[in-house]
Amino acid sequence: MEQRSYGTRKARGYLVGCVFAVLLWSVTTAQIRYSLSEEVKVGTVVGNIAKDLGLDKSTLKERKYRIVSSNEDPLFHVNQNDGVLYVSRKIDREEVCAQSSTCLINLKTVLENPLEVHYVGVEVLDINDHSPSFQEKEKTLEIFESVLPGVRIPLQHARDPDAGPFSVQQYKLSANDHFRLEVKDKGEDGKIPILIVQKSLNREAAGSHSLVLTALDGGKPPKSGEINILINVLDVNDNTPVFTKDVYSVMLDENAPAGTTVIQVNATDLDDGPNGEVVYSFSSIVSRRLLDLFDINPSTGEITVKGLVDYEQKDKYEIEIQASDKGLAPLATQKSVMIKIVDVNDNAPEIEVTSFSSSIPEDSRPGTTVALISVNDLDSGLNGKVICSISENVPFVLTPSLQDKMYALVTNSPLDREMHPLYDLTIYAKDAAQPPLSSEKTISVIVSDVNDNIPEFTLSPYTFYVTESNDPGLSVFSVKAFDRDENDNALISYHILRDGSEDSKVTSFLNINSETGDILALKSFDFETLKTFQF
Question: Bigger pLDDT: 344 or 502?
Fold first, then answer.
């Protein structure tokens, strides 16, 4: 406890005028000044006022000495007998002197009979009984990731009711790579912490930063207070969408129905909000033909069949797709999707007769070419491999040609028009798929006649009777012959063979119609002369 005296005098021997002057001076200045620490125990001795004023005990017995106070709960009281000043109750410097850096309590004391006023000053010294504190336990800041290093952000300062060295003296920031702390002394307003960005922010690498700001006072050891600072890094559209695969390739059956899912692409964008929302589309360079065949869902990236996909028209497609974000200035990336069309056995073989002789002589030799046959299947692989055959039990056969998918229809046995003048040949073509598709084609081959048959009489020999005395010039008999050939080869001409024999003399009296075979007698026959003859 420290005691300081600013003036002493003896209670007796002073002139009244001199006392009056001292009283005037004491209105603003304490005659005696003491100091004590706050929070001392009740009853602690502050000082002996009577002694310090030069008053003896006899004077105190004759004259009443007291403190004049309007406070119902005074901080101090003085012993009437010895003039010792005591602490009446617990003193909180921050309560008594909330707005002052120096806490001086002026006490007005009076010595009665006659009245004598003395001023006593008690300075309450601060002790470090308070810790720095922030108004909030946590503070959230929002900073765009595009801010440049050097940006300064004032932070909430801490308060400490203590004064002097026990007030807030410094701030510390928890260790981090992106921020540092600067403290600016604002005089009466105290020290203000300022957060400075020292390294560029990247929301995609760290969307937020948790910092701890600590305020420390000047005590030994110092007291401290903390505030948690959460820094949310706001997104800037600085990332383009990225597809999850380097290559998109898929197999698709031809003739897949509309709505069939071909493939689903996926892209991600590290940005946030609209800057990270991805929209899918076909690239502007995609042809109208592809747009008629395929469609893409802008939200899911699902590519579906829209039109008829035909392997025979095109066996693969390369489609450029695009993923873009919804930023104010959208960023986009492109990717190729390879669609390989898988052949389906949807085409039956086609048969074409490229060279055909519809008529062939019956005397043609085996191996004679009747027609050239070409077969084709628009499918591929086994679906397009064609096996060709012909009707059974016919004198024809198919022989493969040196040229791919070409066959020759040739005879493989002699022909006989008279037995089989016409052949309806069915050519079968079947692919090697499972199940196979097949087709057939029928051609008619006419076997043309050659004169390979002699005329034949309906009877051989002919026997007929002639009545004697017949009328000359009339038909006595008719013969009939036929020829299995046709047309000119089947035209028959009748003649009587005359070779000069004895019977030939008789036949000189006979004549035959060369076209009809009617035999005419040119004279009358006599039974008694000639009974029989032959020719």
Answer: 344
3-state DSSP percent of the chain in helix, strand and coil, to 5? 10, 40, 50
Confidence of residue 106 (pLDDT cuts 50, 70, 90): confident
Q: Which of 82-91, 123-132, 441-450 has the highest mean pLDDT?
A: 441-450
Q: Are strands 191-197 and 208-217 parallel, antiparallel or unpaired?
A: unpaired
Q: Which is nearest to 337 in space by CA: 250, 259, 254, 278? A: 250
Specify whether the CB–CB gap between 234 and 160 falls below 8 A.
no
In this prediction, residue 36 carries a pLDDT of 83
Q: Specify the DSSP element, H or E, that contains 108.
A: strand 104-111
Q: What is the pLDDT of residues 189-220, one digit of tens each?
A: 788 999 999 999 999 889 999 999 999 998 88
Instruction: Write down how long the chain is.
Output: 535
User: Counting Cβ atoms within 10 Å, is residue 237 exposed (0-12), middle (13-18) or buried (19+)?
Assistant: buried
Q: How many of the other CB atoms lie within 10 Å of CB of 227?
A: 21
State how far the Cα of 384 lies from the Cα of 255, in Å rounded to an integer. Answer: 17
Q: What is the dihedral of CA 391, 396, 397, 399, to 10 degrees?
A: -140
Tell me the per-residue pLDDT of 355-384, one tens digit each, with 9 for 90 and over: 888 899 999 999 999 999 999 998 888 898
Strand positions, DSSP E, 129-283: 138-144, 152-154, 168-173, 179-185, 191-197, 208-217, 224-234, 242-243, 248-253, 261-264, 267-268, 278-282
- Measure the CA–CA gap between 515 and 369, rounded to whole angstroms: 39
**Spatial distance between the Cα atoms of 197 and 209, rounded to a whole number of angstroms:** 12
> DSSP letters of 488-510?
GGG---------SSHHHHHHTTE
| Chain position carrying tokens 């030069």 | 54
Give 2-52 pLDDT, tens digit per residue: 444 333 333 333 322 223 333 333 334 568 888 888 888 888 888 888 888
So what's the pLDDT on residue 147? 92
Q: State how far the alpha carbon of 152 is from the alpha carbons of 146, 155, 192, in Å.
A: 14, 10, 12
- CA atoms of 324 and 332, how far apart (whole Å): 4
Share of the chain above pLDDT 70, in %: 93
pLDDT value for 503: 66
Provide DSSP, 428-492.
EEEESSSS--EEEEEEEEEEE--S----EESSSS------TTPPTTSEEEE--EE-SS-GGGG--
User: Strand 65-68 vs strand 76-78: parallel, antiparallel, or unpaired?
Assistant: unpaired
CB atoms within 10 A of CB 91: 22
Measured CA to CA, the distance from residue 168 to residue 133 in angstroms comes to: 9
Tokens 């628009």 identify what position? 378
Burial status of residue 24 (CB atoms within 10 A of its CB: 0-12, 13-18, 19 or more): exposed
- Decide: 507 and 496 in contact? Cβ < 8 Å: yes
Q: What is the distance, to the nearest Å, from the Cα of residue 173 to the centroid of all Cα atoms in its chain?
A: 42
What does the block give as tokens for 517? 């075979």
